[in-house]
Amino acid sequence: MKIIIGVMGPGETARPEDNELAYELGTAIARQGWVVLTGGRKFGVMEAAMKGADDNKGLTIGILPGATGEEVSRHAQIRIYTDMGSARNNINVLTSHVLVVIGMAAGTLSEVALAIKANQKIILMNQSEETAQYIKKLGSYRVITSDTVEDTIHVIRDYITVHSIA
Amino acid sequence: MKIIIGVMGPGETARPEDNELAYELGTAIARQGWVVLTGGRKFGVMEAAMKGADDNKGLTIGILPGATGEEVSRHAQIRIYTDMGSARNNINVLTSHVLVVIGMAAGTLSEVALAIKANQKIILMNQSEETAQYIKKLGSYRVITSDTVEDTIHVIRDYITVHSIA
Amino acid sequence: MKIIIGVMGPGETARPEDNELAYELGTAIARQGWVVLTGGRKFGVMEAAMKGADDNKGLTIGILPGATGEEVSRHAQIRIYTDMGSARNNINVLTSHVLVVIGMAAGTLSEVALAIKANQKIILMNQSEETAQYIKKLGSYRVITSDTVEDTIHVIRDYITVHSIA
Amino acid sequence: MKIIIGVMGPGETARPEDNELAYELGTAIARQGWVVLTGGRKFGVMEAAMKGADDNKGLTIGILPGATGEEVSRHAQIRIYTDMGSARNNINVLTSHVLVVIGMAAGTLSEVALAIKANQKIILMNQSEETAQYIKKLGSYRVITSDTVEDTIHVIRDYITVHSIA
Predict the structure, then answer these.
(1) D77-110: pLDDT as tens digits
(2) Chain B interface disruption, residue of A90, A99, A112, most B CBs within 10 A
(3) 8 Å CB contact between B7 and B96
(4) Cα→Cα distances D15→A145, B147, C142, D89, Å
(5) Nearest residue of D to residue C139 by CA position?
(6) Where are the domains of chain D?
(7) ipTM score here?
(8) Contact C114 D131 (CB under 8 A)
(9) What is the domain class of A4-162 according to CATH?
């Protein structure tokens, strides 16, 4: 069984610093031998995280909202076509062993909320103080913040060890 | 075509004041001749809003997460069995002409986020200052707050008139 | 709780005799006080069954594949927007108390197969000998054929009585 | 991008000859460097095809109906948790570049029908004369039958070459 790390964040509206961090994180996940999962589109955090993994011999999965190749990232090696629009966000959440959230947008927030509902582990990066506080209050013990890719990788490694994943 | 008003909010964790308001709102929606749509379960805001409408000769729709009658509200007159868990939240959002959100929980927040993503109109009731501010910032012009059922009905009526719904 | 009868069949490729029968069946379902459920599009069996009900003061539900009003039948009074394409066929199947299938096409066959899988009651009308035999073999006791609307209504009434639906 | 071959067929009700063929096919797909996709459960054709690939250093994807590890095949290396029951069949169909169908059951037939609807290539193996004829008539040019794993691999290779997949 493969360890799957979901990397969630804005698409077209991602900030440069979100994309840079997502690329760095994708790289680090690939180096651990884990799989990067995203929403699969060729924009923002999705694109950058998959490119980071793809450039470093990692495996990538894109859970796509549509039924066709339009707007799909070329770094999505495994393309899961759901044709269910934003309802696919719940598949992203349930399939990831741990979720890392970089930056924020409406779709991203829906994933965070669905992940809390599904009792998943969530690591927040590049968030405003306000967002971090709001989500930590709602998600309680499931949510932590991390400032560096190194810390994020440590948290994931501890989590999958403690929960005997893989 | 029927006008469908989604009433979203916590299930088992709803506060008494959320349930009271949901009942009052369900009553008012029914009296307008509109349909109440909820997540269909027999708890909290869903149950109360549908009971309010059902007690007042209104029509109610429950968009259910499961495939069977378990935990379904007896006030859900039309029972849409999705068997898709929380992914059904996106159907709630897309099917409602306007969404009213009473109280907050993880599932509810996912609906708010999906509604912003889908460009739907959202009316917030019984929210903390912090929640209202956070969601209004994310959702911009799509989100307003309302303090009374009367105001909520006015906002809905204006919205469906301006957008030529029905 | 409303009794919901699913009427399934081809859209654009329906034959005139399928549409005529669907209209007649929609009329008869409405006169029983039951609700007609279809895939909601403005073509073929879906359109005709809902028009039959709508013309006779019956209630109609369209479970739509898309997220917008495009190609929606004007006889779909309650419009459930799923935005999940053909995956919405499973919702049609699970939500209907009994399914009536008029004519055949690929999407229709998927609904028949999903209904057998979900252990639902299926009444076949206007089918070739070959289709009727093939589906009855696969679906066993769940599948029957009917030659007239009158017989179909009798079968439905017996089924919902025996199973204490409503 | 990875080439994904869907292998569909009965679970608990699969015949020994279906499982044997599925194992052999999973082996052959893996040796081509392609990925095996199934419904992910630990029964029948799904289990056997994934075991064949897994035993031969191939990659396997299970598109699961549930949200938890229950009844998941241990040969499903990548586990996509949909929590959408049989509606996930449409994801199987859309995600596979080519579908191979071994044996028949209600769920399998729904996948064949959805694949015809989605205009996908379908290769039938181990089918009765009656089933093969019925599906070929409905699916026309999209459907062919194959008697050997070798022929099936040839057909897939030609198809992905002609359609410039990968």
Answers:
(1) 999 999 999 999 999 999 999 999 999 999 999 9
(2) A90
(3) no
(4) 51, 63, 23, 21
(5) D106
(6) 4-162
(7) 0.97
(8) no
(9) alpha beta
